[in-house]
Prior knowledge:
The chain has helices at residues 3-9, 60-72, 137-154, 168-179, 185-194; strands at residues 16-27, 30-38, 47-48, 51-53, 80-87, 98-106, 119-126, 199-206, 214-219. By secondary structure, it is an alpha+beta fold.
Amino acid sequence: MTTSHYADRVSHPALAVTVDLVVLTVRADTLSVLLVERGEEPFLGRWALPGGFVRPDEDLPAAAERELAEETGLPRGLVHLEQLASYGAPGRDPRQRVVTVCYLALAPDLPVPRAGTDAADARWFPVAEAQGLAFDHDHLLADGVERARSKLEYSPLATAFCPPEFTVAELRKVYEAVWGTGLDPRNFHRKVTGAAGFLDPTGATTTRDGGRPAALFRRGPATTLHPPLLR
């Protein structure tokens, strides 16, 4: 059967593809997510995750990077970005059948966002207050937060929330914000400095945490933590 004959016999439903972004940062020791106020229907005036339709000439990662740059104003490549999951339940978008590929983006304290072309506003919200979102974005956000929480146990992902050089106390505040629980400072210090390849000392110190000078570290070469830091 030729391609043209096959096309004549088989019809395919119209399908659009979007990318959505769960953009997380730690602001004032609180895990926060970037939300945009929709400036058009559907869900006019409702808060949603940033995202948009994939352009005909774009690959998925390129579309995610473009949307991230448009919504945060950050140059591409400065944010940890990974694919989270795909969502395609019928009826998730009232306009038509839409499959979205969701990405998780993590970064240190990001600047005040600017609203994109189709958004009325853009703000950081504490994750605990981000509820009742447009589309199925409550579900996407919950999946993104759980991915971040679980990866902090077995990978150096927490350093994505830190500046290039950071103290153990600053790193602990990231874990506390993402996990939503307090951690014993001495026990945490022992665990993170004992995990092979997690942290590399810079040899410098800082007093920005207050009190005595604290050692500064960079992310080490490890891609997984041994032993893991369990919640």
